[in-house]
Amino acid sequence: MTIFQLRDFMYxxxxxxxxxxxxxxxxxxxxPSGSGKTMxxxxxxxxxxxxxxLRLEEDLCQDTxxxxxxxxxxxxxxxxxxxxxxxxxxFSNCDxxxxxxxxxxxATLGWDIHRLSAGEKQRLGLLRLLxxxxxxxxxxxxxxxxxxxxQQRVEQLLTNWCQREQxxxxxxxxxxxxxRRIADVHFDIVxxxxxxxxx
Amino acid sequence: MAVIAxxxxxxxxxxxxxxxxxxxxxxxxxxxxxxxxxxSLRATVQLLLIGMVLKAVFANVQLVxxxxxxxxxxxxxxxxxxxxxxxxxxxHWGFTIGATAMLVPSFTLTALSLIAMIGIEPWYEPxxxxxxxxxxxxxxxxxxxxxxxxxxxxxxQQRAIVxxxxxxxxxxxxxxxxxxxxxxxxxxxxxxNSMSVAGLVALPGMMTGQxxxxxxxxxxxxxxxxxFFLIACSxxxxxxxxxxxxxxxxxxxxxxxxxxxxxxxxSNSH
Lengths: 199, 270
Prior knowledge:
heterodimer; A: Rossmann fold; six-stranded mixed beta sheet; four-stranded antiparallel beta sheet; B: 10 helices; 74% helix
């Protein structure tokens, strides 16, 4: 069942393309830096403008209030931002099971945000995003700062999430091995075009 | 007690002191010797001109003159707000936001105080209306300039945070909530400070003027209080309106942060 659909989708200088994501599907996206991967994710969560049709289940992007769209189409930037003094203030209903699955404990919520390492920020940023109960996840290199143990934890959590919630993920990564491991369909951005590739 | 008139010689004496200050500034290479001279000359010419204008207007009590002078002050003030912005809005917005936010509270409160509080006949008697409007416009202008500058600068610097909050499903108002509050607060700090220390450190300027002109101190105090309250309201409403409008203008209809609507950074020499 298709839950996320792009028809004649255009943004920035990328040529129009079609894309469909089925419930439970993960696709990987790669391309040289500056090719527009991050811009695609930003356009999909409507932080940047796009042309063409963008649909989540029955709802057209432009007919959905922007804040509701972004709660359902969750974008995780490569670098997450934190603005309150402690971690916990960024969470309204933190799932303690998931916190533990990523190697944290309840005490983490009391941590000073200035203490966080890049990897901790990345993992906590993902948990913060999942609170909104999104239908689609747009992940911009979500495991770049992680050691192999934590990388595995994140991949495991996301794979489980995708199956259980019947969501879908667009996962930007450069790591070929990871691409094969997490996704069944792969896309590359080459010369302003998005094309499916076989790995 | 009558006002003791100042002769040109009295003023020249004070002017010589300023020249001495400018000379010292040259010697110390403060880089503002000429600025001191030019500012003093500007003040002299501008005040003499406005003095003559006021003399003419006081002699012809007509609403149209008052409105013209008020509009002139407003336009100069709005331009000054724009000048003080490090990242002003592009297009007419930089000017319009400041002008509208100054216009509405200053003019309304001036009219209200003339009609309902001071109760002079006719209410547009320029001897009362112009100084009142001038004080309200001047203070409102400062509040708006500070508030707007602080707001656009903060959002510019916190772009990543604002966009993260949007991505997490915040409405645009929520995404810049703290920036909005802090900017409004910083616009209001000067008037709150003046009210807090009024009379303890220095006598407020208008009250000093009235006392020098021979008013009984308590009458001067009452006018000063009226002015303080009006300034606080006008600055407060004006700054809130300006920052609020700016925060709407920084987002488009799809709640996207639109920093491209701000001009590039310019050095702030004020």
